[in-house]
Amino acid sequence: MNTGENANTDERDLSALERQVIDVFVDGVKVIGLPKSLGEIYGLLFVSPQPLSLDDIVSRLQLSKGSASQGLRMLRELGAVKEADGNGSRRTLYKPDVDLKRLVGGFIREQVRPHLESGKGKVGKLLKNAAQEEDPQLRKFYRERVLKLESWMGRGRIVLPLIQKMLGE
Length: 169
Hints:
Layout: H1 16-31, H2 36-47, E1 52-53, H3 54-61, H4 65-78, E2 81-84, E3 93-96, H5 100-131, H6 136-168
Antiparallel strand pairs: 1-3, 2-3
Helix pairs in contact: 1-2, 2-4, 3-4, 5-6
């Protein structure tokens, strides 16, 4: 724990190990374009030996209650966090889901697959727009690039279920 007067408020009440674990998850969410607070919340829950309440998370991470609440909601939707038994407590407690298959599956289901599905319709529009280009060389170039994009998206739809299955076995 930081006890010095000049301690960074982001690290208040966090041990060096807790901060390092949280940083691993913060780096991970940054790579996939999710908010830093999701990594902080999940990392804290991951390294905590007992479930934590919203107030615990707010206090330990120095997040606003709104940001922490929104982060918990998104993590629940992704399947990364679940409610824990409160042992008679009126507060809702949260714990991480540490099943890699479920985590990746939730991310693919909630973030990646909708992007790929919405991309199918967009590619069709892109092909129509490319066909309307007056310059024949530019029209050919645009068509090739859009078809490449369509190919990548098709491969993504094939590979994602394989990745999910591979992580589950």
